[in-house]
Amino acid sequence: MRQQPLLSITVFFFSVSACQGVHPTSAATATVLPKEAFPPGENIPTLVTIYQPPELPGFPKIDRHPSAGKLFRYKPGTIPTYDPDSDDLWQMDLRSLNLSGFDLRDSLDDLFFASFDDRTVWPVLDRMPPGFDWQQIREFGKNPGLNVRALHAEGITGKGIGIAVIDDILLVDHQEYIGQLRLYEEQGRVGSATMHGAAVSSIAAGKTTGVAPDADLYYVAADYCTGNGSEEVDFSCLAKAVRRILEINQQLPPDRRIRVLSMSIGWSPENKGYAEIQSAIQSIRDAGVFVICSSEWEIYGFQFHGLGRLPLADPDDVRSYVPGLWWAKIFYKAPDSFSDVLLVPMDSRTTASPTGNDEYVFYREGGWSWSIPYIAGMYALAAQVKPDITPDLFWSTALATGRTIEITHEGKAYSFGTILDPAALIHTLQGL
After folding, report:
1. How many C-beta atoms surround the C-beta of residue 309 within 10 A?
2. Are the beta carbons of 369 and 199 closer than 8 angstroms?
3. CA separation, residue 292 to residues 24, 115, 122, 179, 395 (Å)
4. d(Cα 112, Cα 137) in Å, to the nearest integer?
5. Are 165 and 186 in contact (CB under 8 A)?
6. Inter-CA distances, 170 with 57, 83, 351, Å
7. Cβ(302)–Cβ(296) under 8 Å?
8. From the centroid of its chain, how far is CA 323?
9. What percentage of the chain's residues is helix, strand, coil (to nearest 5)?
10. Tens digits of per-residue pLDDT, 29-44?
11. From the centroid of its chain, how far is CA 272?
């Protein structure tokens, strides 16, 4: 049979803007076989086009590929233990430790407070406590939780929405976010990758760990301008990073703009460079970017806190959550002081590790640094389904659709909420 000619057609992809209407944003060529090319009686497939976001001119722009970070750990002489009455942080930091020489069969309670990574060397199985499955704990921790992955299954993944992050040096080639990374610049930073950058990036936009796994990620490793032996941050340097994000945003097409900025840091009037960072934040807010940081109350009047979770509790079950480890004592002393506070996951999270492009780390105890990129990822999902979303609408809807549960501590029942309900939030915004 004579070969049938192929037909080439051009398929345009369209975007919708509330101000500009419908307009083509890119074009692609698809090859279509004529119906004679298919055997008699066979169903002829219809043309199915899978949307691929157009490439951004000038992006990705990766200025440097920092080397992987290394944890120089001592070999512990004794088995680490956890003291619940202590306020010390990271009591059970087992990252990159060689524990093969220990018998941990009686350490179950302690290990449930452990942080560890893919370089932690565990004892053989018969010297581990029954009920402690570190592989399962690691996999549970990758799940953003609260049924966010159900939204991903609906196609709500943050596709085409820009998330900016200002933080420390990033392991740019990690498999969690290399495909989403559109920009990596450094402002006076030198050295190898750190744990902070890899964690916040993968929480916001990681392929398996992230809230918005298809968002565009723009990252500036900022100089904190500390010097002369001082650890005091000069926030005028962070202000430069904010203005750089604003500059980048002006280069992007309207339908691919940065909509949210994640900064796991906060400031107050007594800090050096306060006026400069406040001015920069106002400028980027005026450009339509929602800023998530530790100073959320001062900027917007919004309050948030981080949720705790036992390592083997189901991340998708709202009943798995309790106050985060570092503030639980405060909550139980004054539970009524946490009204109108949005609660989002924080503890027991697995993120990208700075030690290797395919390595992971489980953080049993988190901080606001982990909650901030989570909220940023949620805002990206909201911007995907409702392009005219505003911070006020997002926050008020999150509080209105959130969940309140009852938890028990030392025999006493407590009302605990408002816990973010991602599906209710997004579906409500879709209907507005």
Report:
1. 24
2. yes
3. 32, 26, 38, 23, 12
4. 9
5. no
6. 23, 33, 13
7. yes
8. 19
9. 30, 20, 50
10. 333 334 443 444 444 4
11. 28
Parallel, antiparallel or unpaired: strands 181-186 and 216-221: parallel
Chain centre distance of CA 175 = 14
User: Positive or negative, the Cα torsion across 142, 394, 181, 226?
Assistant: negative
- pLDDT 10s digits, 53-97: 457 888 999 999 999 999 877 778 888 899 998 988 889 999 999
Look at the block and give the residue holding tokens 């290990």: 111
Quickly tell me which residue has 């301008």 as its tokens. 225
What class, spelled out in words, does domain 61-69+141-430 have in CATH? Answer: alpha beta
Burial group, residue 285, by CB count within 10 angstroms (0-12, 13-18, 19+)? middle
Contacts of the segment 77-80: beta carbons below 8 A, 24+ positions apart: 79/104, 79/107, 79/110, 80/110, 80/114
Which segments of the chain belong to CATH 3.40.50.200?
61-69+141-430
Residue with tokens 């959320």: 296
**What's at 204, amino acid-wise?**
A
Look at the block and give the residue holding tokens 């101000």. 19
Is the pTM above the cut of 0.70?
yes
pLDDT in tens, 121-134: 999 999 999 999 99
* Amino acid identity for residue 305 in this structure: H
Intra-chain end-to-end CA distance of the chain, in Å: 56
Pseudo-torsion of CA 291, 161, 347, 185, nearest 10°? Answer: -70
The amino acid occupying position 258 is I
| Nearest-angstrom CA–CA distance, 30 and 11 | 7
